[in-house]
Amino acid sequence: MENRIQSIESPKNRRIRIGIIPGHFATNHSHVNYYVDMTSIKTSHKMAKEAAAELAACYATTNIDTIICLEGTEMLGAFLAEHLSGQGINAGSDIAVVTPELNMNGQMIFRDNTQKKIWGKQILLLISSASTGKSIMRAVDCLQYYNGCLAAIASIFSAIRESHGINVQAIFYAEDLPKYESFSSSDCPMCRSGQKVDAIINSFGYSKI
CA 15 to CA 99: how far, in whole Å? Predict the structure, then answer.
């Protein structure tokens, strides 16, 4: 699979790149025709800092108290907090960066020591990939339980533009990938045509089949 990887530069900043591998891939929620590799943005501090600056520019007038990081976006979240606290309405703020725990049922929870960073706070939800919006829905359910106020949604890659009445600000959108497509597992034309699934994918990476 690796010999099929293509590099895509952000239309906003050429120093920010993702890798894409064409094929037939299965996620928990859908089947897609690309594996989107965001490893460099998640692990390279230089690229994460560039990506954070691009996202921060979208929130100069949005009050943010806490960034909730999902799917390995903690480094990006820390740089995003730094940028937000240095400009605009959040200048000088001490922005919290937290990650929820997943319980045995896959539900997001916050322990007693971190709940104070959520309760009554303005929350920016940071996710690596939003292909169907279901992960966002799960996170919003968690926020409602802990009385957090969803103020913003940011993503490295997003195939959706809006969720819960809030624009999803992303570094890369589906139109930045050539003919990106996502299907429900029960309505996948690649499955119907007999094309084998190349790999199972999630926020950690992929496992070939």
Answer: 27
| pLDDT by residue, tens only, the chain of 209 residues | 677 889 999 988 999 999 999 999 998 889 999 999 999 999 999 999 999 999 999 999 999 999 999 999 999 999 999 999 998 999 999 999 999 998 887 789 999 999 999 999 999 999 999 888 888 998 999 999 999 999 999 999 999 999 989 999 999 999 999 899 999 988 999 999 999 999 999 888 889 98
What does pTM read for this prediction? 0.92
Domains of the chain, earliest start first: 2-208 (3.40.50.2020)
Element (H, E) at 18: strand 17-26
